[in-house]
Write a structure and sequence with these properties.
By secondary structure, the chain is mainly alpha-helical. It contains 10 helices and 3 strands. A 3-stranded mixed sheet has the order 2-1-3.
Length: about 325
């Protein structure tokens, strides 16, 4: 097929991490384990926040949305990769590749917006505690999340439509484990100057903007903590944002490392390996960071597990009640 023909008939090859078949079972088991841990851990956060009325606050509302987005972003990438390893096939159709890229763009941008909202929430809680309930109304929090969804979808739609205008050669090999926008653009046979321009401008605005917002929020938080006289008060104020600060550092440091390593080495294999950190490892670690460092989450999970433990015997008893009633009669 020549460039410029009907690209919907194309099939791409996701090369993944290793050409050696002896390593594929190990990679399959590793990524399956990480995927199950990610889904299970983030589902626990969602259940804990939704089942405990004491966690119905802006901070945990944003955390629940972040957990949902983390489940979605890993579910966009990992299942297809596991299927390809299991079937010993690297093929992904053009339509599936575009769809995967589209959803990955949506959820990755949403991740950055949610982290920024959580930083702003901590800024208001520490620097303006008396005005917290007024400044962080539920309506405002819901509106912020809704606007983030709209902007993420519009950005993804723009990038996807621009990729759809590109022409690809047959049997295109993607040296990655998923269809990433930058890789797709580099492999096109047609001119990609405008695509690259829009892609880098969007990265500066949608990636740099939230990062600057987070830096501003934490600079204000640091200034407010310094004004607290007691050491215990400083520790208590800092501990409320330690979990979020850990997640932000992990997300942005690994994401920045991906682009720095790819720019320095020009190796797609090293870029794919580094991408695992912010696409798989970071969503997997988020529940551990919040559950281990957050007393409210730990107590909510403990209460939720206690409720589940109580409900199981009750349900089993209700199921056996007709049998017991028959034996009594």
């Amino acid at each position: 097929m020549e460039p410029g023909n009907d690209t919907r008939l194309l099939e791409f090859l996701l090369l993944g991490f290793s050409e050696g078949p002896e390593l594929q079972p190990l990679i399959f088991g590793l990524f399956l384990s990480m995927y199950l841990i990610t889904v299970f851990g983030n589902l626990l956060i969602l259940l804990a926040v939704s089942s405990d009325s004491r966690l119905h606050t802006p901070m945990y509302f944003f955390l629940a949305n972040l957990s949902f987005v983390d489940i979605c972003i890993t579910s966009t990438i990992i299942p297809k990769m596991l299927v390809n390893i299991q079937t010993q096939s690297k093929v992904i159709t053009y339509d599936d590749c575009i769809t995967q890229m589209d959803f990955f763009l949506i959820f990755s941008v949403l991740d950055m917006y949610l982290l920024t909202m959580m930083a702003y929430d901590r800024f208001v809680a520490i620097c303006h505690p008396l005005h917290y309930t007024v400044m962080m109304k539920p309506q405002l929090c819901g509106l912020l999340v809704l606007v983030s969804w709209i902007m993420s979808v519009l950005h993804s739609l723009l990038q996807t439509l621009m990729v759809l205008q590109l022409s690809f050669c047959t049997e295109v090999e993607i040296p990655h484990f998923f269809c990433e926008l930058n890789q797709m653009t580099q492999l096109a046979c047609s001119d990609t100057f405008f695509n690259n321009l829009v892609m880098y401008l969007a990265a500066m605005l949608l990636g740099g903007g939230p990062f600057i917002g987070i830096l501003y929020s934490y600079s204000k938080i640091a200034f407010c903590i310094q004004r607290i006289s007691s050491a215990q008060g400083k520790y208590k104020a800092f501990s409320t944002c330690a979990s979020h600060l850990s997640i932000v550092s992990l997300f942005y440091c690994t994401g920045l490392g991906v682009y720095l390593s790819s720019a320095a080495t020009q190796s797609s294999h090293s870029s794919a390996t580094a991408s695992v950190m912010y696409t798989v490892v970071t969503p997997m670690l988020n529940p551990f960071i919040y559950s281990l460092r957050n007393r409210d989450i730990k107590e909510a999970l403990r209460r939720f597990s206690g409720m589940a433990a109580i409900k199981v015997p009750i349900v089993l008893g209700l199921k056996n009640f007709p049998r017991l009633q028959a034996s009594w009669s």
